[in-house]
Fold these 4 entries.
Entry 1:
Amino acid sequence: MSSWTVDPVFPVWIIAVGLIPSFAFFLWKESKSNQRFLVIRLIAQIIILISLLGILTRPSLKKETKTSGLLLLTNNYDKSTADSLINKYSDLKVVRTADATLFTNSEIVEPIDIPAFGSEIKFIIGEGISSDVLDLMPEKNFKFIPGKNKSGVVQLVIQKPVRVNQKNNINGIFHLTNSKVLVKLVGPSGVEDSISLKGRGPIPFSFSIKPKQAGLFLYSIESNDYSKSKETLPIEILPERKLNILFLQKFPTAETRCLKNFLIEKGHAIALRYQTSKTKFNYEYANTPSEGIDYITSAIAKAKDLVFLDSQVLTELSSNEKIILSNAVKDGLGMIILDLPEKEKRFNQFLSIKIKITGSDTAHISFENSKTYVLPVQTIEIMSDQSLQPELVHKKRIISGYKYSGAGKVGFQLLRETYRVRLEGNMDDYSSIWSSLIDRTARTKNKQFDAGITTPFPYYQDQSLEVRILSSGTKPTLYDGDIQLPISEDVVIDDLWKGRTWAGKSGWHKLLIKEDSTELDYYVSNKNDWKSLRFMNYSNVTRLAQSKTDTTSLEAIKIDDTPISLFVFFLMFLIASGFLWLVPKI
């Protein structure tokens, strides 16, 4: 069965309005001419009309033919499964991807050519195909039969952003085929963390890192199973942020002074206010100009990234100051409450949590490769909920953490006398107590653009990568090297832009948004890295895309779309117009 389709250069109605009246006029003029060969001249005029219509509408011939189905073999397919399908459906034609093992009478097909087969593909076995290939398939009438995954990482989540001197977690799932495997996280300076996994099947694991230097680094996850796998893990480590911090204290304490000095050494701008009498305050400043803060105003709150308050100040703030701070937090300000009041009503305007009084007044805190500290802690137990983000936990008891409040966050620290850790000279451990809580609670800087790659890690050479950019109202200009990438705005969500690039050679690469020089670094893995993780990614998307209906009927309709060459229409135009030019001379 055949049919005609067109792909017009201009809308059909514009072509019709332009050509039909014009040629009606030319045919009328030709019929009034006294020249010879009237019928042939009229036919030549009609041929010119047809040739121009062909050039402007670009017709194609669509032909439908019935074909037997296709079996697509992908990497790590099960040969016995393929043999069973061939035995059951003898008319199946077999094709395979280049990374799939050899199969009798099979042809290699490139990923970019897979969408062209459309409904011909009836079965896909192995690891499946990537989401960008699936997106290009017009019809998905296949059933997916996954192969067996080998030992390795099948899920990976990195806590972001990763910053200098902050503890970050790397969580994942390792698929075990052995009963016991030692998995190590190796950094630039050696082994950072390790874990022994036991059992079979998917087993969760977690590593922690605390980087000392900013930059683009290559870690690795190594295991001692039979495959001796070593997967390259790229991590972008960001420098510590420089914050504008305000301390509001009833009285100066050793804890506050130690924390203030620690933050000053880090380069943060510090303003500290404490009370000397009912109406008078003393101030201290570092890395910032002096300013009067007798009364909290909206302008002061807007200028700060983080505010520390103790329980007494929180109680004695005026109603108006509390409203100003509450609104500022909802607009993005960070707040950390020290010495949390033991009555919820005194802080629930800022921090919506449930507490209960406990008899425990000390906590044993230990950090990686360090001693255990016994520190005083408030006799308060925080009741956990899904919206609460813990930072420091002791025996399932949350010691510090934060919670979102609008665009901002409110945190708490139940530990007391943490200065003792610093006085002992253990700067790294002191930093572990405070740095992560401060950075994650502080105001998130407003950016004109927020860019990210939504294609699941890992990325391989020549793979299509989807880029999404959230804009503050300006259309971004996205570059991959010297090449400007086309982008389009989401049809539903305003200021959400989507673009696509193709991964280059293995190594670090950079995308750039020209308007504000926002850079997005990403790493292209070697084709032999992360086989188990790629297997899981491809299997999941292929399983979701498979047909929900029966595909046991292998007969498929193949549509061949053959465009008619424009050369034919140009030749018709030249012959017909040449004849009309020659007639007066005969």
Entry 2:
Amino acid sequence: MSLRVLAVAPPSFLSGNIGPNTFTSKDPSSLYNACRVAAYYADIGIGAWGDSNWADGLSARQSSVLLMHSLREQMKDFDRLLSTLKPNLLLLGSMTLCFPGAIACARRAKEMFGDEICIVLGGRHVSESLFLDKGTGTIINHPSSPVRLMAENEIENIFDIVVSGDGDYPIVEIGELVASLVSRNIPAASAKNHLERFSQTPGRWIISAGSNYIVSKPNIFDRNIIPAPCELFGVRTFFDVFDGNPTAHVYSDSGGGCKFGCPFCSESSHINGPLLQLDTAADRLFRQLVSASNVIRKAYPGKTPSAFVEDSIFLASQEYAIERFVRVAESLDKQIRFGGQLTVDCTNELQAYLKPLRERGLEYVFVGLETSSPTDVGGFSKDRQLSEGTWLERACKAFSLLSENRINVGVSLLFGLGESRENREFLFQRLLSWRQAYGFPCAVSMNWAVQHPLKGRDGGANYRYLDWGVDPGPMSDALQDFGEASVRYPIFGVKPPTLEEVNEVRSMYRQLFP
């Protein structure tokens, strides 16, 4: 076996446990997505992947993928996998707050294996910090770019290859390259000397090895032939909103982000690129839901399959895509329960489709409210129907429509955008009134806004993200109930949260969910 692979989602905290009110998944869905083509090749026996540890079935792949939350509590798990698998290819998919964790994991792997392991870093943080200038096509390294940090000796040369953008096919090619080198007794890390190998690799990406770069040609791959992640890695998540049934992460694969461009958000298509192949997105989503149903019924006999659609907005809230989905998904009735994300205004615009979507299994919608008054924090681009009433009036209308169609609702709250304490209190009171009127929101996700690199659209913050977002201690403990939060990297121009503020929000949350 010339290719031995370990894939890791690094931790976002130095220490601490996941809070009971945090929205979490046991499946690292973004990492699965990036690795699914390689896993598919392993599954059907193609090339070096067909002779790798990932070719030994779903269980073997699951056991060589690690989702970490805190470094100190889970480094022993990482060490165990390094010792057991002895990987020669380590894939790290890092969000921005996970970057210190990615550095720690790469450092440990290099200490153990040196150049006998090729370490590849990708993920959202790399894609936001290593990018092309839209005007000139010049490669830009944000101050937090791993490539720049290694060049400036801020961190050791521990990442052999850095991938910005689509990782699907570059990962396949890197695995083939590592296997070829190892079979000839050449150290796996030498893969960084062969960037010419990637010249025809599909996707939109930048690949860096030290000071050398290669940029993809206009070679977009066909998303209609990409398999569902759950087919290759299984399902290990159980969401309370689906009564604790197994819940798969599914996608329409219509692009990297949201069609709106809210300035604080990493999901924006301004950051992730345009939406793609929307004309066939409904068909892809339908196939993934069917796959999820089949995988769950086989793995968990007697359980009711469920899924959450990870589109930033369900099928980009495009009427023609949703109309197509309603037509092709008639057979989903009672086959699988599912949820997805919509905005307040999109829900109101799509009210004619709520009933047919409910009939096909849509039971849950997740809505981001952020604040009760968008204008107080600079506004949202998704706040579009200004002539139809205030943001909260439109939210009331959306929730009423969802209630009429027996669709449950979860809400995402984002603090730290510059809102006042009074604004936060008012928002929680409104949530309480909605719970009394509609019986939902059934779940509320809390986050404290973090400044991301955003391909340089960070207001000049220029954070390097080398330190953990929050140090261990009382603040770290208080933030365990927040999905994403940081003291060290607040939105540029906004003060970081104080312990008193965080505890106030937690107290208001407990009044909502006693």
Entry 3:
Amino acid sequence: MENKEKLRNEVDDNYKWDLSVIYKSNNEWKKDYELAKKEILKINNYKNSFLNSANDFYEFLKYDEKTDRLLNKLYMYSHLNYDSDTTNDVYKKMDNQIIDLFNEYEQLSSFIVPNILKQDYSLFEKFFKDNDKLKEYKFFIDEIYRYKSHTLDTDKEEMISILSRGLSGGSDIFSSLTDSDMKFDDITLEDGKKVNFNESNYTVFITSKNRDIRKQAFTLLLEGYSKYKNTFASCYSNYVDSNIALAKIYNYDSAISSSLFSDNVSEDIYNNLINTVNNNLDVLYKYYDLKKKVLKLDEFHLYDVYANLVDECDKFYSFEEAKKLVLESLSILGDEYNKVLNKAFDERWIDVYHNKGKTSGAYSSGFYDTNPYVLLNYEGKLNDVSTLAHELGHSMHTYFSCKNNPYEYSSYKIFVAEVASTVNELLLSNYLLNNSNNKNEKLNVINHILELFKGTIFRQTMFAEFEALMHKKREEKEILTSTYLTENYYKLVKKYFGPNVVCDDLIKHEWSRIPHFYNDFYVYKYATSLSCACFIVNNILNKKEGALDNYLKFLSLGCSNYPVDELKQAGVDISDSSVILSAINTFSEYLDKFNEVYES
């Protein structure tokens, strides 16, 4: 008999996050919501006067902060409650109401940056002298001025805004096609039964122990995409053209320089990642050779890549055991860190178990005036323990950033967002390996790390190389036909998988199914974040002088500096290939460790 899904009110309160510390009731929320509707309109009072004097400017910034904090507090309460139970129409309505209010305030406040940039910077130098309290905002103002040469006048900005919907056409068509219109042939199971096959269940079949099922899944998926190769080529080519056109309009040298500008990251860092990985692909080839050996295959095909090296660990970890493992594995991060970590459990920051209507997956979400909450769908598997450590890494980063910065610098950038979470994952894995006597558990831990490194350092870098190449070639007037895209993607696949993997011809269509390609020059951040995390963990475990203190300081920086400079506070120079090499060498060491445990 199947277990019936619990309703939200049937879950023990001890395993639900405590949102009453945000608002004690929905009525309290509604009172603040009504207040917020009035507060956002007050911005019109500042429109023509906020730059009249240093005091006027300071008064406006404090108003804007107060309003933004109120909106965020309202949003946190509504969205966390809604994600707890998406069948609850009350919270669905509240969530939509506050999103609408956010959008309204964004439109009302659209005058701020253009008006600041109309002024000569000397005005703000005078303001800093006239009002000492404004010095706190210097980096904030400097960051706005960094965009001055890439900002259009009001009429042109409005024109671009009007055209924005059309400029996203390629991305929108890709989403509609893949989410709604694409259909695949059925897949045939071992017993001869045919079942529906799609992107959602692809992972189930491509990781199957049955090789025929894996091959079927690989073939069905990519043959499905190949049928629309010209449409996907048009979508992606349109997207690339839009990126290039906007980069020119906004006075950037290239599409990639435009994308990297927001993080103040140089192309050298992007290229350093690709070059360092390219120079060390032999380690990745070593991984595929290991898989071929363990799976006892005469030939290793691309549909064998996701087959599990070992049987899934059948050990059940209660949430209390998971909590104990996380606390013990992260105790190396010191008393202050662990004091806050205990608060996460004791003060119910974590929503643990699944219930009917609860959002799937896991995340950490919090801001300046709330706890950094964690959503889980905990089932007691080893991967769930790792997910707990990972999401708490995000939460600790949020906590320390908020507690050590004024509001305007409290949110860290996406560029460094995965560092703290991955540090926790790696420390947990190290602890489990050193404290387990179970061979299968050890192999599962190592396999998890190997998959993490393979999928993040190598696969994401291959994606980063592909999109950089395609943008560069298009800027050189190359036409991105389906043939050109598939041929160049296939060349990269053969390079990254090496001489001992059979690179099945259908893989050349894989580029067309990668949604990240419609978020330009983003995927490299996954690889740099894991590399940085690995570098930090190795330094902490090796008790390098200052390593722990530097890392804890990094967690407290928020966005008070540029991401690359913040990482240097943690002892990490991401422009140095040694950081990437640290991750690649760790990957190699885990390969050797797997062999050692497997053969024991």
Entry 4:
Amino acid sequence: MLAPKDGIRQPTRRCGVGLLLLALSVLAGCTSMRQWWHQGLKVGPNYGRPMTPMADDWMDAEDPRVLSGKQAWNWWYAFNDPTLEQLIRTASQQNLPLRVAGMRVLEARAQRRIAAGNLFPQSQNAFGDYTRQQFSRNAVFPPRSMAQSFDNWSTGFDLSWELDVWGRIRRAIEAQDAELDASIEEYDDVLVTLVGDVAVTYIEIRAFDEALELARQNVDIQQQSLDVAEARLASGRATQLDVDQAQSNLASTEASIPLLKQNRRQAKNRLAVLLGLPPSNMGSLLGPPGTIPATPKKVVMGIPAELLRRRPDIRRAERSVAAQSARIGIATADLYPQFGLNGEIRLQSEDFSDLFAGDSTAGFIVPGFRWKILNYGRLTNNIRVQEARFQQRIAEYENSVLIAQREVEDAVAQFLRSQERAAKLEKAVTAAGRSVKTAALQYGKGKIDYDRVFILEANLVRLQDEHVRAQADVAIGLIRVYKALGGGWQIRLETCPIQEIVRGEDILSPNEATLPRNDAPSPGAKEPLPLQGEPLPMPPPATEKAN
């Protein structure tokens, strides 16, 4: 009886020694084992944030209207318009694309938890079954002396566990961590865009309000000129040409009013959708027609390097680089053998009453490995694929930084140059208004012909339209500066609409707004994002709605 046992044990010993020698040969023959050891038993590169070109300062840094210092994130308070403030707060709570971005964060969080679960046995199943076997009485086997039927009760538990020797699973967790961060940055990017779009649309509505009011005033002025021309024609002191010119000016100005109303209605419809509301007149939110809010003449900008922290789209692009870096490690791990453990423990008995007895225990354990050999270069080429995608992500990150700097410079140019243009147009409008009054008086007295009145009134309408547009461009330019600088996403730290979707689970808490350190050795290293300066003080409540 001893010989068979030894015969069974010898192959087992040989198999164990063979596995050990195989593992040692892998460890000894792999040139990257030292790196694998120092990286916490993970193959593939550890991530570090790539460098990107940044300007030393803004092109208009010497302009006295461009200030350095801490930028307030709630920049819309600078307009001192309670209606604008309420619209932005409403949009941040009700906008539907923002809600979609929030649900993507929930999705990314769940995906990260799935990846983390793979550290534990990847497959585990509890089972139970009952079998009744009936043999034929006319068959050769079993003999009639044996039982012709029997029962079998069985229950137990099995598992399959791949050991994360090379860090493939941990790299997958790193990738999902970075994807989760990227989804949060995407939420913030949508929020920055939303706040800017709400403010720009509101400014456009107020610009149309002003333009409509000016058009109505010009209609009154031009109607008076037409009345004078008709009176002079009736008295024989003017020709039909004067009346025709006056009617032409009046009809042209009147024709602009329906277009302005159309544009204002369309702007209100855009604003309603941004607020997550069906299109309507929005009288309760906008109040009566008003004017463009007073715009500050100066802007606080800081330095270009701060864009890396301020702009969510840049942070999202950087997190995508980190996720792709981890995927290189996942692909590299496929070059090495996968060590695993399969096992099962069960209770098995013919009689159910004996199922839970000690002698009913059975099971097995099977340690082993699998190695993808003869893969015809597929594994190494998959690594090259992931490395190429990594380089693509780096280029996209660098390009996003360049685009961000361009957007800031464009917005600053619009803000500063529109101020200068608005100031000149204001003088032109004032002079044109005086000239129209003077020309109307002189025409009424017969000192000049109607040609000068016709030209001056048309010129006044044009200059007033340009002046309103320039004033709107100043405000919109300032909004675009703050938007390009990445301000406004911090409003979610005050109120998070996702809390209303998933009760008790604040997916966008301040602790999750993170960014890897500049010298981070791996994607897991994080630090809280700073708020961009102190918030502006809340204005005192207004007794009347600002116009």
